[in-house]
TrEMBL record:
The modification N6-(pyridoxal phosphate)lysine is found at K42. It holds the Pfam family Ala_racemase_N. Residues 37-240 form the Alanine racemase N-terminal domain. PANTHER family: PROLINE SYNTHETASE CO-TRANSCRIBED BACTERIAL HOMOLOG PROTEIN, PYRIDOXAL PHOSPHATE HOMEOSTASIS PROTEIN. Keywords: Pyridoxal phosphate. The lineage of its organism: Bacteria, Bacillati, Actinomycetota, Actinomycetes, Mycobacteriales. This is Pyridoxal phosphate homeostasis protein. Belongs to the pyridoxal phosphate-binding protein YggS/PROSC family.
């Protein structure tokens, strides 16, 4: 059962973040409807997702396949027939592609040809067995500093990867995602990302999505064209101490 105190806490925090995002859009001269707020629900229980759903949220970000799959299954009946979009925003191992293809509307962290191949095969299987009826939206994660250990394809390899996604059945190239380098100035990092995105759009004009900005730097991301800010901490608080951290969760996406 949902705690009234927890529901009130999340409602207050969500309202604050929505106001903050609206202010950021106003300061940047942008329409607030052009920037989506993606609550990051990783590490938090399905009950928190239900609270956010009641508060009007329909998109949720997860980064661990096993945890996300459990939530999707648990909430399938309780949320009902309202459309919900689950976003995979964390590093994905190829052997988890089949599971993610079952429930994800989009994946923000594609960074290798082998993962694209695995996702194409997994989505094809999901179509065949009736687990999905729409293409999987793919955002390519680009590394802004060349440190691919933190996730992301190197910028010189982006064009080839984008072409592969574009030509893959069941996948739709939606845009880019990036995380600023550790210790970097967010404005400089997101300005760099915006320039990379412009280059991508010149070849793939429909790849308009730009997933950038988290709790600490969403204003800078909005200034430089983000269409989706991934916010976890400012909405749900610090992750529960008891939450297990898997070795693949080596970068933060909220």
């Amino acid at each position: 059962m949902t705690s009234p105190d927890r529901a009130a806490q999340i409602a207050t925090a969500l309202a604050s973040v929505r106001e903050r995002l609206s202010a950021a859009c106003a300061a940047a001269g942008r329409d607030p409807d052009d920037v989506a707020l993606l609550p990051v629900t990783k590490y938090f229980p399905a009950a928190d997702v239900e609270i956010l759903f009641e508060l009007g949220c329909r998109d949720f970000g997860e980064s661990r396949e096993q945890e996300a799959s459990r939530k999707v299954d648990e909430l399938g009946a309780s949320i009902g027939t309202e459309p919900v979009r689950w976003h995979m925003i964390g590093h994905l191992q190829r052997n988890k592609a089949k599971s993610v293809a079952r429930w994800a509307s989009s994946i923000h962290s594609v960074d290798s040809e082998r993962l694209v191949t695995a996702l194409q095969k997994a989505v094809g299987h999901a179509f065949e067995v009736g687990e999905r009826s729409s293409e999987l939206e793919v955002l390519i994660q680009v590394s802004l500093d060349g440190d691919t250990h933190r996730g992301g394809v190197e910028r010189e390899d982006l064009a080839a990867l984008a072409e592969l996604v574009e030509g893959s059945d069941g996948l739709r190239l939606a845009g880019l995602m990036a995380v600023p380098p550790l210790g970097a100035d967010p404005d400089a990092a997101f300005a760099d990302l915006a320039e990379i995105h412009e280059g991508l759009l010149s070849r793939h004009p429909d790849a308009t999505e730009l997933s950038a900005g988290m709790t600490g730097d969403l204003e800078a991301a909005v200034r430089h064209g983000s269409t989706c800010v991934r916010v976890g901490t400012a909405i749900l608080g610090s992750r529960p101490i008891a939450s297990p951290v898997q070795s693949t969760d080596h970068i933060s996406h909220n």
